[in-house]
Structures are given as structure tokens and as C-alpha cells.
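Q: How would the C-alpha cells look for this protein?
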Amino acid sequence: MLFSSVPFLYYFLPAVILCYFLAPRQLKNTVLLAFSLGFYAWGEPKYVLLMVVTIAAFYICGLAIGKAKSCQWKKCWLWVSAVVGVGFLAVFKYADFFIDSFNKATGLSLPLLRLALPVGISFYTFQSLSYTVDVYRGNVPVQKNPISFGAYVTLFPQLIAGPIVRYADVARELDNRAHNWENFCAGARRFLIGLGKKVLIADQFALFIKLFRQTQATSVLFYWLYAAAFMLNIYFDFSGYSDMAIGLGRIFGFHFNENFNYPYISKSITEFWRRWHMSLGGWFRDYVYIPLGGNRVSRGKWVRNILTVWLLTGLWHGAAWNFVLWGLFFAVLLLLEKWVPALQKLPGFLRHGYVLILICFSFVLFNAESLTQAGSDFAGMLGLARLPLVTGETLYYLRSYGVLFAAGIVGATPLVKRIALRLDKTRIGAILEPVALMAVLLLCTAYLVDGSFSPFLYFRF
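A: Here is the predicted structure in C-alpha cell form.
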């Protein structure tokens, strides 16, 4: 079920809010668990059992780690949880990729499993792993209530596309959280902002991208417009989902961490990854990079750590070679920034410029359906495909979507937020905000009823 859909907005969400706030405090997690499983079953009914098995396995492993008397047994149960979580990922997400790659390398024809990918498996697996690792480290107490633990794993606001919520971030709120009008209003406001980003901006860029793929009258400028459109599409799509997830969490008394912080204003690749998908970057830092030794090792091992983390980051996003190369591309860029200090001495506008260009190329690779298509897109952007610089059709689409590009560029900076914060302090702002949010809801509803929407990009991960 999509957040940006009429069934969710006008049936599921009102039902869960009504049942949740009418339920006594001791049953609120039960209500969340029941509705979250129903939310997941809407689109993935056959994989609800897989999720229930995941919950049971990690719950039992957490109890076993907490009761184990020796460090050896604690580590043993930690490994059991890791094998279960990574094992499910390996079978459902990566098995066919590795089998196909093996077949191509050896000339064999081993049969593919052809299993459908459970939506959100990467997210809820990482969340479950964070629980057993933190229990093993002694950072959080064992959750003895299976309902509360199940509610954490299945919590529908962030179940299928993040942000990755660690158990440590919500452990206290699982058992004791505040419910008040202020949280409800702040959550609803954040949700509607995310809904607007998704439906009114991201989905419109998705239409532009579809037109680009369908047209035959391409040009160098059209390829660059496509690359810019996808940069803005994926940002507003994913950050919009994160806004909606954070807002929904706030309505139910949870405070999820931020996932985006205007990444396109970055002046280095390092800064970009401190601002983009922050929950994923933090997860790999704390559960992979630092345990491997981080940067407190020899240069050779440090390079190994960087390459390992970014290889896994690429694979996390998808079981395809373009994602592997995408991750390694960022590993190389991060190493270059550390090894070439002169890059950080360039004027700010040059640093910002090279970051945007590199990010632009990286997302073209990210969005390619194959390495062949990625190569074709790069050739088109670099003028190596014997295409005209511009065509009449390109100029037509530029004029048609110019306002959208302008809105996307401005919206990807802190400018709109700064203006909104200043207006909030005025009497006019107090009047305009609810009117603007209601207008966003009505406009989004009109688009959704018309069928002008697309699935969230990160559902595939």
C-alpha cells in the first residue's frame, strides 16, 4: 500500500488513527502491530509469514543473548541472528544475481530461483540486526515483550522504505511515549509536506523521465535534462517518503531521526553522504566500518574498509552490477578526497560544482537498467553519440517543464524552509500554513484520483 494513494489516505490511515487513540495504553502496540501486518499484507500477503519468522527469530536471539552467561554464547546467538537475516536477504534478493553472474563467467546454465523480492526486506532486516547487535554490545536492554518487539520491526510508517530506525532510537518510546495534540499536529504537517514532495514534484519528474525514454528525438541537452530530472526525482521521492514516515511516527508518539539534510548543497562527496540517506550511512558506519577498524588502522586496511563498506552499500541498493559499480564509484571518490587535499582548497563554487556533476553521473548509473544502457547514457551526455546539442523537441520539453525544474532546484535547498520558519513567527504565517497544507492535500488527492502517480523508487530495495 502506498502512502500516496487514496486507500491509504482516506481508509487505512483514519482507521488506524481512530483505533490507536481509542485503545488503552497497554494495547497501543498491539494495534500498531496488527495494522502494520495488515499494511504489509496489502501488497505482500505471501511474505507476511517471512516477516513473522524474522520477528520470531530475532526476538528469540535477543532473549538468548540476554540470558547467555558467557561471551562465547552471546556471540553464538548474535551469529545465529546474522545468519537468519543475511540468509533471507541472500536467498530472496541476491541468489539469482550471483547464479546469473556465475553462469556468465563459467558458461554453465544453473537454474535461477526466480523468487519475488519481498518489499522492504533490506530495511526491516537491518533494523532487526541493529537490535541483536546492540543487545550483544549492552547498549540496549532485551525486549521481553514479543508484541512490542513485533511492533518495532513492522511499524508501518518506516516498514518498507525507511528511514532505517534502530532499536536504540525508539527503545524507550516503545514502552512509554507521549501522545498529545502538539505531536499529532507536527506529525500531520510533516506528513503532508512529504506527500506534496512525492506527488507534486517527484511524480512529475518521473513523467519527464518516461517521456525521455520514449522519445527518439534525443540530444545532448535532453540527456542532461534527464540526468538532472532523475537527481531531483530520487531526492524528492525518497526524502518525501522519509518526511511522511517521520510525520506518521510523530503522530503515534515516535521520534525518528532525520534521513536527509539538503544533500545537494554539499561541497564534497564526504559531506554529501553525511546529508543523504543518513540512516543507512550511520548503520554501515556503526555496524560495519567501525568494527572493521574504521580509519584507525594501516592505510591498506583502511582502503579495504572503505571498499568493503561501499561495495555493501551498492549491493544493498540492488542485486545488479550497476549498483556494485555505483557503490565502488563513491568509494574511489571518497578515497580521492582524502588523498588529494587540494580538492578541499578549491573555491566553494567549484567544489559544489564538481560534487553536483559527479552525483549526476552516479545517478545515471544508478538508474540504468543495464551497464549497456548506462554506457549509452554517458555517451549521450558527453556528446559521444553523434547527437545534436539541442533539438526543437528538447526545447519544447524544457519550456513545458521549466517551472517544475525551477521548483525542484529551489526546493532542494534550505531556502523554502527558511522562509517558512520566518513566516511561522508572524500572524500571516499562522493563517497561511493550514491553508497551504490543505491545498497540498487537495491537489495531491486530485492527482491520485486521476491516476497521476508512481510507486516509491526505494520500494525495490
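The chain is about 70% helix and 0% strand.

The chain has a mean pLDDT of 92.

Upvote if useful.
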